[in-house]
Amino acid sequence: MDFESLSCEKTDVPAPFCGLRILLVDNDTTSLLNLASALEEHSFKVTTIEKATVALSILRERIDQFDLVMVDVNMPEMECFEFINCTQLIKDIPIILMSSNVKREMVEQAVAQGVCFFFMKPISAKKLKNIWQHVYRHQKKVSQKLEKNKANNQVEVMDNTSFANKKMQDTKGKIIVNSAEGSKGKRKRITDEETQVKNGDSEKEDRSLVSEKTMEKRRRLHWTPDLEKKFKKAVRKLGQKARPKLIKEMMDVPNLTQKQIANHLQKYRVQKQQAPHVQPTTSSIVN
Q1: In terms of DSSP bridges, do strands 176-178 and 187-189 run parallel, antiparallel, or are they unpaired?
Q2: Can you tell me the distance from the alpha carbon of 11 to that of 236, in angstroms, rounded to the nearest whole number?
Q3: Cα–Cα distance between 16 and 132 in angstroms, integer?
């Protein structure tokens, strides 16, 4: 996408990322306010929080109202990597760490845990202006992952359908079998099964057809409004503990598999990530 021709009037931030919603967490009040002011100069919408625990509560309550989390690693009430884990359980959102004392081991651990960038304080105005690039890369990565999952699901459905069709042919008794011990590999027709089919004994075929229809129904699960409502209710109630197994138990819907819930949970988070921005007014929550 060419963003150069689409940008805000007062800044060269691409138009799709004007009003980027940032949750800024820093226990240093001075640093917090200075960073927020610098970010707002580039049309970003910033919510400032001093405590990590409060930030998690806000993110959980306003799960669809943030595009990026920026957090200082020096948080007295919570270890930064614990905060990262809790944030990722709530929402698949890009996370940027900040510190005035950056160590290589910490950076490596942060990257391994899914953090998209690590800033050394003080952060220049140019780097803050380009914050949107990290959100763009994250969105692109999520989209590619979703497309890959869709492709894998399509291949799996095709394989299952081919297997089911072959099984149906076997039940009709019309498959010619090679005889390894008979007359030099000559093929023999299974006359007994063929006779049963001719006599109207199609019980096995009926069972196979029912089984195939059941498989097809499970593969093509339609998320009805009522089913979607139960799913969202379970996700919101579980919060950071939301897992396919727990969601399945809470929904208590017959024939709904854990794999179907896992796929839907991933799509749900991607849709929330790619939802159109609602540009909230800048707010500040300081404790």
Answers
A1: antiparallel
A2: 37
A3: 9
CA distance 43 to 148: 34
- 43 close to 16: Cβ distance less than 8 angstroms: no
Q: What would the pLDDT profile of 153-169 be if each residue is shown by its tens digit?
A: 776 666 666 666 666 66
- Tell me the pTM: 0.51
Q: Of 57, 59, 56, 49, nearest to 27 (Cα)? A: 49
For the chain, how many residues are written?
287
The HSE-up count of residue 242 (CA atoms within 13 Å, CB side) is 26
pLDDT digits (tens, 9 = 90+) for 36-91: 999 999 999 999 999 999 999 999 999 899 999 999 999 988 999 999 999 999 99
For the chain, report the end-to-end CA distance as a whole number of angstroms: 41
pLDDT of residue 86: 95
CB of 23 closer than 8 Å to CB of 55? yes
Question: In a 3-state reduction of DSSP, which class is residue 7?
Answer: strand
For tokens 């796929």, the residue is: 263
Where the chain has pLDDT below 70, the residues are: 1-11, 155-220, 273-287
Residues with Cβ within 8 Å of residue 17, at least 6 apart in sequence? 3, 132, 135, 136
d(CA 64, CA 101): 32
Query: What pLDDT does residue 136 have?
Result: 93
CB contact at 8 A, 23 and 87: no
List strand residue ranges (DSSP E) for the chain, in order. Answer: 21-25, 45-49, 68-72, 95-99, 117-120, 176-178, 187-189, 283-285
